[in-house]
Amino acid sequence: MDTIANDFTINIATANGTGSQSANLILLQSLFDMGVPVSGKNLFPSNISGLPTWYIVRLSDDGYQAPGDRTHIQVLVNKATWAEDLAALEPGSVVVWNMDSKMPMDREDVVSYPVPMTKLARSLSPKLAKLVTNIVYVGALAEILGITDEALHKAVAGQFKGKASAIELNKTALELGRNHARENFTKSDPYVVESRAIEKQRFFMEGNEAVALGCIFGGVQLLAWYPITPSSSLAEGIIGWLPRLRTNDEGESTCAVIQAEDELAAAGMVLGAGWAGGRGMTATSGPGISLMQEFIGLAYFAEIPSVFWDVNRVGPSTGLPTRTQQSDISMLYEGSHGDTQHIVIIPGTIEECFEFGWRAFDISERYQTPVFGLSDLDLGMNRWACEGFTYPDTPMDRGKTIRDQDVFDAMENFGRYRDLDGDGIPYRTLPGSGMAPILYRGTGHNPDGVYSEKPEDYFALMKRLKDKINGARDNLPEPLLREEVEGDVGVIYYGSMENTIQEIDDILEDTGLKVSQCRVRSLPIHSEVEAFIRRHRMTIVLEINRDGQLWGILRRELPNDIVGKVHSVAYSDGMPPRARIYAEKILETIKGVSQ
Amino acid sequence: MSDKPARAIKLNVINEPKDSYKGGPSSLCPGCGHDQISNVVINAAWENGIKPHRIAKMSGIGCSSKTPAYYLGQSHGFNTVHGRMPSVTTGAYTINKDLLYLGVSGDGDSASIGIGQLIHAIRRNMDMVYIVENNGVYGLTKGQYSATADIGSKKKKGKANETQPIDLCALAINLGCTFVARSFSGSKKQLTSLLKAAMSHKGFALIDVISPCVTFNNNDESMRSYQYVKENEITLHMADYIPHFEPMAEVEVPEGHFTDITLHDGSTIRLETISDTHDPSDSMAALTALHEAEVEKKHVTGLLYFDANKPSLAEDLGLVETPLLDVSDDDLRPSEEMLDTINKEFLNV
C-alpha cells in the first residue's frame, strides 16, 4: 500500500470535562516537535462537563492550517456522538475506537482499530481512568502513525511541567496504548507521520495569551474585565504575567486588575483610567461589546483613550458561545448611537497578536479615542505556530498629553477640544494637574470643553472628530499584500482567515485561477486597500459571517467608480473556515460576475 | 468709587480664598435643594483646606449630576453617563489614587439605573465621597417618581406613590459601607460637618441628602418637601467637625454628652447627644433607627454608621506606592532582554 505521509486529518470525539484536551494537546505538540506542520482546532461546547467535544488535528506538509475537507482518522470515545461520527466517515477511513464503550462498530468499509481504552486505563489507575483513557488513545495513535516516544515524552514533560507523578502516569498510559496497538494491529491504512527537518524554531501559542503578553509590554495600567468566553483567557493571561513582569520586590504591581460587576462597569473603569491619564483596557466578546456601547460613544465624543479587545464568537445574542466568527466588525467600527467611527486593529497571526497588544495603547493615546483589537475564538483559543515576539520598535506614545506646567504656559489658545495642529487631535491636561481643568461631558461642547448647543459648535466638533479618525487611516497597521503579476482577481480578507488563505489560494490555482491577496489589518481602511482594488478587475471580500460586514463598510466608503468592482463572499456555520467551502464560493462569485 | 478700605479676603489654611472653590452659575430651578448642597461642597472643601485641583468631581446624569459645573471650577471633573459614575471613578482611582474623588448623584442615578454600580463601589470600599441628592423624583424628565419616593407621598401632579422605596442608607449599611450618613439640604451645618468628615474618611462615604425638588415635589402632600422634612426630621445627634489642623485644646467642650470619632486624616467628628445616644459603630441600631423613622413617616439624619477598620480598594489592588500615573514608561514596559528571555523559554532554546 502506498503511504500518505503528513497529509491527513484526525478527528477525536470525546466528552467535555474528561481531560481529553490535555491528551489532544500532547498529540499536537509531539507532532509539532517532530517538525510536522500541524494545526489543532478545539470544537468545544458551552458546557463544563458532559457535552460532546471534538478536536481536529490536521497534518499538512503544505502548511495548511484549516480543518481539512474530511476526516481520515476518527477516534471514537464519546458514545453520544458515536453513531453520527461513524456514519459521516468516507469509506477507507480509519477508526480508532474504545471497545469498552459497548457501542456498535458496524462499518465494514473502514479500517478498524479497536482499543480497550477504559480497561487499560483502569489497570493503571482506577481512580483516574477517565483521564487516562484519553492518553491511551494517543499512545495507540502514536504506534499506528509512527509518532516517536521522544516527541511524546517531551510533550508530556511540557504539559505537566515539574509534576513528576503526572508525567510518569501519562508516560505509562502512552505505553499501554502503544503496546496494545503493536501487539494487536497489523497496519492496514496508508497514513504515516514522518519527521521533518525543522528549519526555523517555532512554538505553539494561543492568540489570547499573545495579546496578553503584548498588553503587558504596552504598559497596561488597568485591566478591568468581566469573564466571558472566549476572551477570559486573555484577561487571565495578563493576570498570569503580572507577578513576573510588572511587580516589584515588595510584591507591588504597576497594573491594577479589577474583575468588574458587568461589562458596563468594566468599560466605565477603562474610561476612568484613560481620563486620569493611564492605560486602561478590557477584554470581552461580542455580547460584552453590546453592553459597552454607551461608554464607547462617550469615549469617542469626550475623546478618552481606551482599549477594548473583542474576541469574536458566534452571534447574534448568546449565539454559539464556543464557536468562531468575524461578525463584530461593523459593531466595533460604528459602535454606539449617533455618528461614530472607531479605530479597529485586526491581528491575523500570533506575532501580530503580541504587536497589536502593545500598539493599541499607543494608537489610543495618540488619537484620544477608543481602539478595538479584533480577534476571534479561532485565533484566540486555538494554538497557532509562532516564531517569537519582536520588541516594540518605538517608545510608548503618550499622545498630546501635557504634563508639564512650562509646556502648558507656553501654549497659546489652549482649549481641551481645540485643534491647534490641524490634525484634528487636541491637547489634553490631566485631573490633578491644575492645568486648564474642565468638566468632561458626553454632551455637546465647544473647543474649550464648555457645554454648547450652538449649531456651529456641534457641526465643527463632529467634523473634527471625523477628520481626526480619517487622519489615522495611514498610520495604522497597513494591509499585507501578496500580488500576482497577471492576477486580475483580488481577495481581501482579515484576521484568522490568514490560517486558511493559502489553502484557498492553492485550490483556486488548481483551477487555473491566480488571485492576489490583501489582508486588511485595520479600520478605517488604509489607502493601500483602495489602491489594491483599483489594480484589479474585480475584488472579493472574504469573511466569516453572513452579511459581508467589511464589504458593507468598503461599499460605503470607497469612491463610486470602484464600488461595483467589490464583491462579497461571506459564509459562517460556526466552524473554523474550511478552505474548500470558501474557494468554491469565490469561484461561483467570479462566474456570476463574468456572466 | 467706594472710599471704604478693601476688606481683607479671608483665606483658608492653605491660603486660598473661597472663590478658588466656586464654580459657574447654576442653571437649576431657583430654590433647588441641590444648589444648597453645592454651596456646602464649596464651604466644606474650602474650610478643609483641600487643594482645589486635587479634587476630582464625578457625576452621572440628572439634575444632581449637572451640579459639578457649579462648584470647584479649578478641579477636573467628569459628567459621565447615567448611573455609571462609580465605575469611571474606580478606573480613575486606579491610575491616580492621590486625588479626592467627590461623586455626586441623584436618586434616579443611584437607586435605579446605577444601583448595581453603587453597590459594587461600596462592596470594594472604593475610596470616595458619594453624595446622593435625593428628591424622590426625576427632575430633568419632568417629575416621574424615582425608586426612593416614599409610600403615600404625592408629588405635584398625579397619584400618590404606592411602591416600596429603596432606602439607600439601609442598603449601604447592609452592604458594609464604611461611612453612611443622611442629611437634609436645609440643614447646612449638619451637612457641612458630615461632608467634611466624609472627605476625611478612607473608604466609601455615602451621604444621602434629602434635597427637595421645588418644581415637581415640594407640595404639601409630598414627604420630601421643605416643609415636611423640616417638621419630620429626627436628628440623631449634633455633628461638629474638627479638622486635623485645628488644635483640639482650643475647641470648646460641649456641655452635654458627646462622642468623638477620629477620621483617617486625623480630623475628628464630634457627635453630641440630643436625647438618646446613637452609636455609629452599631449597624443594627442604625438599621433600627431607619426602620422606625420609615414606619413613623419621618426622616432620620446624622452619621448612621461608621467603620474605620475595613480595608479599602487601595489595599486590595496591591499597587506600588507611587500613583500609577507617575510611574515612568520605562517601568511600565519590561525590557528587551526580558522579552528575549521569554522568547527563548517558549522556543525551548
Q: Could you explain how this protein is built, in words?
A:
The complex is a heterodimer of chains A (595) and B (349). Chain A has 595 residues and is α/β, with parallel strands linked by helices. Chain A is built from 20 helices and 24 strands. The longest helix of chain A is centred in the N-terminal third of the chain and has 21 residues, at 164-184. Chain A is globular and about 85 Å long. The two termini of chain A are 45 Å apart. The relative contact order of chain A is 0.09. The model of chain A has no long low-confidence stretch (mean pLDDT 96). Chain B has 349 residues and is of the alpha/beta class. Chain B has one domain (18-317): Thiamin diphosphate (ThDP)-binding fold, Pyr/PP domains (Rossmann fold, 3-Layer(aba) Sandwich), CATH 3.40.50.970. Chain B is 30% helix and 19% strand. An eight-stranded mixed sheet of chain B has the order 2-1-3-4-8-7-13-9, sandwiched between helices. A three-stranded antiparallel sheet of chain B has the order 10-12-11. A two-stranded antiparallel sheet of chain B has the order 5-6. Chains A and B meet through helix 7, strand 11, helix 9, helix 10 and strand 18 of A and strand 2, helix 3, helix 5, helix 11 and helix 12 of B. Strand 18 of chain A pairs parallel with strand 2 (76-79) of chain B.
What tags apply to this protein structure?
heterodimer, A: 595 residues, alpha/beta, Pyruvate-ferredoxin Oxidoreductase, domain 3, Rossmann fold, 4 domains, eight-stranded mixed beta sheet, six-stranded mixed beta sheet, 20 helices, 24 strands, 40% helix, globular, B: 349 residues, three-stranded antiparallel beta sheet, 19% strand
Précis, in short:
The complex is a heterodimer of chains A (595) and B (349). Chain A is α/β, with parallel strands linked by helices.
Number of H/I helices of chain A? 20
Strand content of chain A: 15-25%
Structural class of chain B: alpha/beta
User: So what's the CATH class of chain B?
Assistant: Alpha Beta
Uncertain residue ranges of chain A: none
What is the subunit organization of this protein?
A: heterodimer
Instruction: Report the major sheet of chain A.
Output: 8 strands, mixed
Shape of chain B, please? Answer: globular
